[in-house]
Write a structure and sequence with these properties.
The chain is elongated and about 65 Å long. 18% of the residues lie in helices and 17% in strands. It has helices spanning 19-23, 49-58, 96-99; strands at 5-9, 28-30, 36-38, 43-44, 64-67. It has a domain at 6-67: Alpha-Beta Plaits (2-Layer Sandwich), CATH 3.30.70.
Length: 103
């Protein structure tokens, strides 16, 4: 089973290509000028995931965004140890040859 997918449409970015409505007509409609509107609250069912993802990827102006974070639950952000000196990696005159900068 995959994660629940939620999308958002930024109508200010839409240029009216209509590709989204072609790929996922259950989620996108076009107004009289061809600009897209999101149908519903943006929650995508699992069976429609591929069609909506195709619409998202094919949007030439990137007006469709997926909402949420895709980080595994057990992933921890890297952190420096408590013993590490935060100034150890500063570029200084003493180590300028190592960093390759000149005055």
């Amino acid at each position: 089973m995959t994660e629940r997918m939620t999308i958002r449409l930024d109508r200010t970015l839409c240029d009216g290509f209509g590709i989204c409505a072609k790929h996922a007509p259950k989620y996108f409609s076009l107004d009289d000028w061809g600009y897209a509107s999101l149908i519903g609250d943006g929650t995508v069912t699992e069976e429609d995931h591929d069609a909506v993802m195709r619409a998202l990827l094919d949007c030439p102006v990137h007006a469709i965004m997926e909402v949420g974070e895709h980080r595994p639950y057990d992933t921890r952000l890297p952190s420096s140890g408590p013993d590490e000196d935060p100034t150890a990696h500063l570029k200084t005159e003493e180590n300028e040859a190592e960093w390759g900068f000149t005055r």
